[in-house]
Design brief:
alpha+beta; seven-stranded mixed beta sheet; 200 residues; three-stranded antiparallel beta sheet
Amino acid sequence: MSKFQSLHTDCLVYGSIARGDVNFGSDIDIFFPSPPSPEIIETNIEIAGFESNQRQIIQATPNYAAKGYIFLDELTSYSFPLVPLRSTEMDFYTFAGSLSLQQLLESQRVLGVDKRLMLIEPTKDGHVESEIIGREGEVAKLLNVDPKIVNERVRTLLRRNKVGHTGVYLKRELSPEESFSDVFNTLIYKYPALRRRLRK
Protein backbone atom coordinates (compact mmCIF):
# COMPACT_ATOMS: atom_id res chain seq x y z
CA MET A 1 0.00 0.00 0.00
CA SER A 2 2.85 2.40 0.82
CA LYS A 3 4.40 1.91 -2.60
CA PHE A 4 1.17 2.78 -4.39
CA GLN A 5 0.46 5.73 -2.11
CA SER A 6 3.83 7.19 -3.05
CA LEU A 7 2.71 6.95 -6.69
CA HIS A 8 -0.55 8.77 -5.90
CA THR A 9 -2.62 5.64 -6.46
CA ASP A 10 -5.24 5.16 -3.74
CA CYS A 11 -5.87 1.70 -2.36
CA LEU A 12 -7.49 0.26 0.73
CA VAL A 13 -7.31 -2.87 2.81
CA TYR A 14 -10.60 -4.52 3.67
CA GLY A 15 -11.89 -7.32 5.85
CA SER A 16 -10.62 -8.51 9.21
CA ILE A 17 -7.47 -6.37 9.16
CA ALA A 18 -9.63 -3.26 8.90
CA ARG A 19 -12.13 -4.45 11.51
CA GLY A 20 -9.56 -5.73 13.97
CA ASP A 21 -10.79 -9.35 14.29
CA VAL A 22 -7.59 -10.48 12.62
CA ASN A 23 -5.61 -13.67 13.19
CA PHE A 24 -2.54 -15.38 11.71
CA GLY A 25 -4.66 -17.01 9.00
CA SER A 26 -6.40 -13.83 7.89
CA ASP A 27 -6.28 -12.77 4.26
CA ILE A 28 -4.58 -9.51 3.28
CA ASP A 29 -6.92 -8.08 0.65
CA ILE A 30 -5.93 -4.79 -0.99
CA PHE A 31 -8.33 -3.08 -3.38
CA PHE A 32 -7.93 -0.23 -5.88
CA PRO A 33 -11.24 1.69 -6.18
CA SER A 34 -10.10 3.78 -9.17
CA PRO A 35 -7.12 1.93 -10.55
CA PRO A 36 -4.66 2.89 -13.25
CA SER A 37 -4.21 0.31 -15.99
CA PRO A 38 -3.62 -3.29 -14.83
CA GLU A 39 -0.18 -3.15 -16.44
CA ILE A 40 0.81 -0.19 -14.25
CA ILE A 41 -0.40 -2.04 -11.14
CA GLU A 42 1.63 -5.11 -12.08
CA THR A 43 4.74 -3.06 -12.84
CA ASN A 44 4.54 -1.29 -9.48
CA ILE A 45 4.06 -4.57 -7.64
CA GLU A 46 7.28 -5.81 -9.24
CA ILE A 47 9.10 -2.54 -8.43
CA ALA A 48 8.02 -2.94 -4.80
CA GLY A 49 9.81 -6.30 -4.76
CA PHE A 50 6.76 -8.57 -4.84
CA GLU A 51 6.10 -11.40 -7.26
CA SER A 52 2.67 -12.65 -8.32
CA ASN A 53 2.01 -16.38 -8.40
CA GLN A 54 -1.49 -16.24 -9.85
CA ARG A 55 -3.60 -13.79 -11.86
CA GLN A 56 -7.31 -14.06 -12.58
CA ILE A 57 -10.26 -12.20 -14.03
CA ILE A 58 -13.44 -12.89 -12.06
CA GLN A 59 -17.03 -11.80 -12.56
CA ALA A 60 -19.09 -13.12 -9.64
CA THR A 61 -22.48 -12.86 -11.38
CA PRO A 62 -23.60 -11.55 -14.80
CA ASN A 63 -24.64 -8.25 -13.18
CA TYR A 64 -21.49 -7.68 -11.15
CA ALA A 65 -18.39 -5.80 -12.21
CA ALA A 66 -15.56 -7.93 -13.56
CA LYS A 67 -12.39 -7.58 -11.50
CA GLY A 68 -8.76 -8.44 -11.86
CA TYR A 69 -6.95 -10.30 -9.08
CA ILE A 70 -3.23 -10.59 -8.52
CA PHE A 71 -2.25 -13.10 -5.84
CA LEU A 72 1.14 -12.92 -4.19
CA ASP A 73 0.47 -16.04 -2.12
CA GLU A 74 -2.47 -17.93 -0.62
CA LEU A 75 -3.35 -15.08 1.76
CA THR A 76 -2.29 -11.89 -0.04
CA SER A 77 -3.98 -10.33 -3.06
CA TYR A 78 -4.49 -7.09 -4.95
CA SER A 79 -7.78 -6.57 -6.80
CA PHE A 80 -9.22 -3.88 -9.05
CA PRO A 81 -12.37 -3.35 -11.13
CA LEU A 82 -12.14 -3.71 -14.90
CA VAL A 83 -15.31 -1.64 -15.38
CA PRO A 84 -16.61 1.35 -13.37
CA LEU A 85 -18.20 0.29 -10.08
CA ARG A 86 -21.77 1.01 -9.10
CA SER A 87 -22.25 2.72 -5.75
CA THR A 88 -23.65 -0.46 -4.19
CA GLU A 89 -20.60 -2.40 -5.38
CA MET A 90 -18.34 0.12 -3.72
CA ASP A 91 -20.51 -0.19 -0.60
CA PHE A 92 -19.36 -3.82 -0.31
CA TYR A 93 -15.96 -2.66 0.93
CA THR A 94 -17.54 -0.43 3.56
CA PHE A 95 -19.85 -3.31 4.51
CA ALA A 96 -16.84 -5.59 5.07
CA GLY A 97 -14.83 -2.82 6.74
CA SER A 98 -12.05 -0.96 4.94
CA LEU A 99 -9.15 1.36 5.76
CA SER A 100 -6.87 3.66 3.84
CA LEU A 101 -3.12 3.43 4.37
CA GLN A 102 -3.16 6.49 6.64
CA GLN A 103 -5.91 5.01 8.80
CA LEU A 104 -4.00 1.74 8.97
CA LEU A 105 -0.82 3.50 10.05
CA GLU A 106 -2.82 5.26 12.77
CA SER A 107 -4.00 1.83 14.04
CA GLN A 108 -7.62 2.70 13.37
CA ARG A 109 -10.29 0.00 13.16
CA VAL A 110 -13.76 0.24 11.69
CA LEU A 111 -17.16 -1.39 11.86
CA GLY A 112 -17.75 -4.18 9.37
CA VAL A 113 -19.53 -7.47 8.80
CA ASP A 114 -17.72 -10.80 8.46
CA LYS A 115 -18.65 -13.90 6.42
CA ARG A 116 -20.63 -15.28 9.35
CA LEU A 117 -22.92 -12.24 9.07
CA MET A 118 -21.66 -10.95 12.39
CA LEU A 119 -21.25 -7.22 12.91
CA ILE A 120 -17.78 -6.52 14.30
CA GLU A 121 -17.70 -3.41 16.48
CA PRO A 122 -14.18 -2.45 17.62
CA THR A 123 -13.70 -1.58 21.28
CA LYS A 124 -10.69 -0.28 23.18
CA ASP A 125 -9.53 -3.76 24.14
CA GLY A 126 -10.96 -5.90 21.33
CA HIS A 127 -14.31 -6.09 19.62
CA VAL A 128 -17.96 -7.00 20.12
CA GLU A 129 -19.80 -9.35 17.74
CA SER A 130 -23.54 -9.36 17.06
CA GLU A 131 -25.77 -10.97 14.44
CA ILE A 132 -27.12 -8.76 11.67
CA ILE A 133 -30.01 -10.95 10.52
CA GLY A 134 -33.24 -9.15 11.39
CA ARG A 135 -31.30 -5.89 11.85
CA GLU A 136 -30.46 -5.19 8.21
CA GLY A 137 -31.85 -1.65 8.21
CA GLU A 138 -30.11 -0.76 11.46
CA VAL A 139 -26.81 -2.19 10.23
CA ALA A 140 -27.06 -0.26 6.96
CA LYS A 141 -27.40 2.96 8.95
CA LEU A 142 -24.50 2.05 11.25
CA LEU A 143 -22.25 1.36 8.27
CA ASN A 144 -23.67 4.23 6.19
CA VAL A 145 -24.31 1.97 3.19
CA ASP A 146 -27.29 1.31 0.94
CA PRO A 147 -29.62 -1.27 2.55
CA LYS A 148 -29.49 -3.13 -0.77
CA ILE A 149 -25.91 -4.27 -0.15
CA VAL A 150 -26.79 -5.53 3.34
CA ASN A 151 -29.78 -7.50 2.07
CA GLU A 152 -27.80 -8.85 -0.89
CA ARG A 153 -24.93 -10.05 1.30
CA VAL A 154 -27.34 -11.70 3.71
CA ARG A 155 -29.03 -13.59 0.85
CA THR A 156 -25.72 -14.61 -0.72
CA LEU A 157 -24.03 -15.79 2.46
CA LEU A 158 -27.09 -17.60 3.81
CA ARG A 159 -27.38 -19.46 0.49
CA ARG A 160 -23.68 -20.28 0.56
CA ASN A 161 -24.02 -21.67 4.09
CA LYS A 162 -26.97 -23.78 2.96
CA VAL A 163 -25.75 -25.22 -0.35
CA GLY A 164 -22.02 -24.57 -0.19
CA HIS A 165 -19.95 -22.37 -2.47
CA THR A 166 -21.91 -21.89 -5.68
CA GLY A 167 -19.04 -20.73 -7.89
CA VAL A 168 -18.85 -17.64 -10.05
CA TYR A 169 -20.19 -16.63 -13.45
CA LEU A 170 -16.76 -16.07 -15.01
CA LYS A 171 -13.31 -17.07 -13.83
CA ARG A 172 -10.36 -16.88 -16.20
CA GLU A 173 -6.82 -17.77 -15.19
CA LEU A 174 -4.12 -15.74 -16.97
CA SER A 175 -0.91 -17.32 -18.17
CA PRO A 176 2.37 -15.46 -17.51
CA GLU A 177 2.53 -14.11 -21.06
CA GLU A 178 -1.06 -12.81 -21.11
CA SER A 179 -2.09 -9.29 -20.10
CA PHE A 180 -5.28 -8.33 -18.27
CA SER A 181 -6.24 -5.86 -20.97
CA ASP A 182 -5.87 -8.32 -23.86
CA VAL A 183 -7.70 -11.13 -22.09
CA PHE A 184 -10.50 -8.84 -20.93
CA ASN A 185 -11.02 -7.49 -24.44
CA THR A 186 -11.26 -11.07 -25.71
CA LEU A 187 -13.77 -12.00 -23.02
CA ILE A 188 -15.99 -9.06 -23.94
CA TYR A 189 -16.72 -10.69 -27.29
CA LYS A 190 -17.37 -14.07 -25.69
CA TYR A 191 -19.62 -13.09 -22.77
CA PRO A 192 -22.75 -11.00 -23.47
CA ALA A 193 -23.02 -10.10 -19.76
CA LEU A 194 -19.69 -8.27 -19.95
CA ARG A 195 -20.86 -6.28 -22.96
CA ARG A 196 -24.13 -5.39 -21.22
CA ARG A 197 -22.26 -4.26 -18.14
CA LEU A 198 -19.96 -2.06 -20.21
CA ARG A 199 -22.95 -0.44 -21.95
CA LYS A 200 -24.55 0.33 -18.58
